[in-house]
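User: What would this chain look like folded?
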Amino acid sequence: MARQRVMSEQQYLNSKGVGSAVSDYMMDKTVVRKSAYHQRQDERSRKALKQNQDQYYAKRNQARREYRRLVSSGKVRAPTQAEKTWNTAHGLSENRSVQAARRVLAKHGVDWKTGKRIAPARGRGLWPTFTHKGSSGKSSG
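Assistant: Here's the prediction, encoded as structure tokens.
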């Protein structure tokens, strides 16, 4: 049996280029104009924006349906809370969410760097140990 890929819906949407909830089509096109000529041009711009938004949302919804189909077929699975916490712990150490994730892992007796059990868990239940591709510290090459 092939291994399941662990991927959240947001990661999947990002890989398809539709991770943002809104399209960035008009980011650099926003201008305030007052003359009648510009009002007609603005109306055309609004129509183009609406068309682009509709296409973007259709593509985003299609990607969401595709993710749900992959999850239901067993090819992809959503990460567990423990996996999310462990991935968060590998962020920049000055971020509060990273510090909190490291404290949670320490509370559950898991080393945030290696993912291995370092002590008996003090929290509710045992968390799994993790394997990280680059955790050996050896350079490949």
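The chain has four helices and two strands. If you want, I can go into more detail on any region.
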